[in-house]
Each structure stands twice: as structure tokens, then as C-alpha cells.
Amino acid sequence: MAKKAAAVKKGAPFSKAGRFLREVGFELKKVHWPTRRQLLIYTSVVLVAVAIMGVLTWLVDSFLMWAMAFILR
């Protein structure tokens, strides 16, 4: 066991990569994955929020273009 630990400490890239992938697998087992319904709801909320922000950005941009055109006349 000491040799294996020494190999990991020395920097054996394949040992480190294997250990990393095992730990990733353990962590993924702990993740709470959303149901299909939750995923659809969350996606809808994000899309609606993006659409609202897009419209607000467009309105502010249009107003600023109008204001600059009015000032520069």
C-alpha cells in the first residue's frame, strides 16, 4: 500500500487520473437528479426569464437610440 501511495504522490499521471475518475463517480451518486417534470418546469422558467430580459434590453436599447438621434439632430 505504501508503494501505491508513493506512486500517487510522485505524480504518476494514470494513478491520479484513475483516482480522480473514481471520486467523480462517487460524487455523481450523491447528486439529486431532477425528475422530467421538474426539468421541464425549470427550463420553462429560464426561457421565460431570458425572453423577458431580452425584451427589456431591446426596449432600453431602442429608447437610447431614439434619445441619441434626438440629441444629435
Folded structure, characterized:
With 73 residues, the protein is mainly α. Helix content is 88%, strand content 0%. It has three helices and no strands. The longest helix is centred in the C-terminal third of the chain and has 37 residues, at 36-72.
Question: How would you sum up this structure in a few lines?
Answer:
The chain has helices at 2-10, 13-30, 36-72. It is mostly helical. It starts with a helix and ends with a helix.
Question: Main attributes?
Answer:
single chain; 73 residues; mainly alpha; 88% helix
By helix and strand content, what is the structural category?
mainly alpha
- Mean pLDDT across every amino acid position: 89
Characterize the overall form: elongated
- Helix and strand succession? HHH
Rg, nearest Å? 27 Å
Instruction: Name the helicity range.
Output: over 70%
Total number of strands: 0
Name the poorly predicted regions: none
Describe how the helices and strands are arranged.
Blueprint (H helix, E strand, L loop, with lengths): L1 H9 L2 H18 L5 H37 L1
